[in-house]
């Protein structure tokens, strides 16, 4: 039996599982030696594309039988720049492989650990690069909130948090903000949070949005980020400085039932992209190769 060949730019959970499949063969990337001897490039049956559309990506897309992307944004980008059939490109959002726990219990234990009141709603922000991901815009949203029913939690690396302390000194937050450096259990923070806000300018699918949804957070992010395709219009920010965001967050802080409804809805949406469900979607594509 001929194996189905795949190639990719970046490895993810879905590809890790595919590599275990006996039907699949992963094509090795062409090294410098092969290029120098003008070895004929072998193209995969299925190409997993993400990121920039460079010459190599375009070549792989044109020659693949099927192309897998992680957002409609990427699919549309390809269709705008390359003459290929839209049926050739399939959207499979990033895969979730996480251990869900009861959020109320996790929040109570988290608040006890840091000696903070568990009654206020936790508004969470995290990123590897806080500035690039919109931490200043996040603060602008928080400082505009009229509700006192809130506890702010921000986590990142030690260097990022150290730099953040200079910025945070400009705001009069008092005890409302908890800064965490190199926190080992990031999932605990998402589980403890009630609202996750990421006013990013990035056009790369931010998986923390999907993680926050899976862990039952209300989520706000910018329309420019492909992850916004999974959230409700209400929670979509037109840009990182969208003035309506603070009003919307205030509304959720003052209406617990609305907040709970959005949290449940987000988890329901995110569960559609659990790893096994994405594998099933991909198997349907494999069967048609």
What are the defining features of this structure?
289 residues, alpha/beta, six-stranded parallel beta sheet, 39% helix, 16% strand
Descriptive notes:
The protein is built from twelve helices and eleven strands. It is elongated and about 65 Å long. The chain has helices spanning 13-18, 32-36, 55-63, 72-81, 103-113, 135-143, 158-168, 186-192, 207-214, 244-254, 256-270, 275-286, and strands spanning 4-8, 24-26, 46-48, 66-69, 89-91, 121-126, 150-156, 177-181, 195-198, 218-222, 236-237. The longest helix is centred in the last third of the chain and has 15 residues, at 256-270. The strands form two sheets. Strands 8-7-6-9-10-11 form a six-stranded parallel sheet, with helices on both faces. A five-stranded parallel sheet has the order 2-1-3-4-5. With 289 residues, it is an alpha/beta fold. Helices cover 39% and strands 16% of the residues.
Question: How are the SSEs placed, and which strands pair?
Answer:
Blueprint lengths: L3 E5 L4 H6 L5 E3 L5 H5 L9 E3 L6 H9 L2 E4 L2 H10 L7 E3 L11 H11 L7 E6 L8 H9 L6 E7 L1 H11 L8 E5 L4 H7 L2 E4 L8 H8 L3 E5 L13 E2 L6 H11 L1 H15 L4 H12 L3
Parallel strand pairs: 1-2, 1-3, 3-4, 4-5, 6-7, 6-9, 7-8, 9-10, 10-11
Helix pairs in contact: 5-8, 9-11, 10-11
The number of helices is 12
**Low-confidence region ranges:** none
Strand content: 15-25%
Major β-sheet annotation: 6 strands, parallel
Q: What is the helix/strand order?
A: EHEHEHEHEHEHEHEHEHEEHHH
> Which structural class best describes the helix and strand composition?
alpha/beta
Rg: 21 Å
Q: In order across it, which strands form the biggest sheet?
A: 8-7-6-9-10-11
* pLDDT averaged over residues: 93
């Amino acid at each position: 039996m001929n194996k189905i060949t795949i190639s990719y730019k970046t490895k993810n959970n879905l590809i890790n599982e595919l590599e275990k499949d006996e039907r699949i063969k992963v094509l090795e990337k062409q090294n410098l030696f092969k290029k120098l001897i003008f070895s004929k490039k072998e193209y995969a049956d299925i190409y997993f594309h993400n990121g920039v559309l460079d010459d190599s990506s375009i070549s792989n897309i044109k020659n693949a039988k099927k192309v897998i992307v992680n957002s409609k944004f990427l699919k549309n980008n390809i269709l705008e720049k390359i003459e290929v059939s839209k049926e050739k490109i399939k959207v499979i959002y990033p895969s979730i492989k996480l251990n869900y726990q009861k959020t109320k219990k996790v929040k109570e234990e988290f608040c006890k650990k840091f000696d903070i009141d568990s009654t206020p709603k936790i508004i969470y922000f995290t990123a590897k690069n806080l500035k690039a991901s919109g931490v200043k815009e996040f603060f602008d949203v928080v400082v505009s909130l009229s509700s006192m029913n809130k506890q702010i939690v921000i986590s990142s690396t030690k260097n990022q948090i150290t730099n953040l302390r200079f910025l945070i000194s400009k705001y009069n937050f008092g005890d409302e903000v908890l800064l965490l450096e190199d926190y080992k259990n990031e999932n605990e923070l998402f589980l403890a949070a009630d609202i996750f806000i990421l006013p990013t300018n990035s056009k790369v699918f931010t998986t923390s949005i999907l993680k926050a949804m899976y862990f039952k957070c209300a989520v706000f992010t910018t329309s420019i980020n492909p992850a916004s395709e999974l959230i409700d219009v209400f929670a979509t920010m037109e840009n990182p400085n969208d003035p309506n965001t603070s009003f919307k967050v205030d509304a959720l802080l003052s209406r617990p039932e609305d907040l709970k409804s959005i949290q449940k809805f987000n988890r329901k949406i995110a569960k559609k992209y659990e790893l096994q469900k994405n594998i099933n979607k991909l198997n349907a594509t494999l069967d048609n190769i």
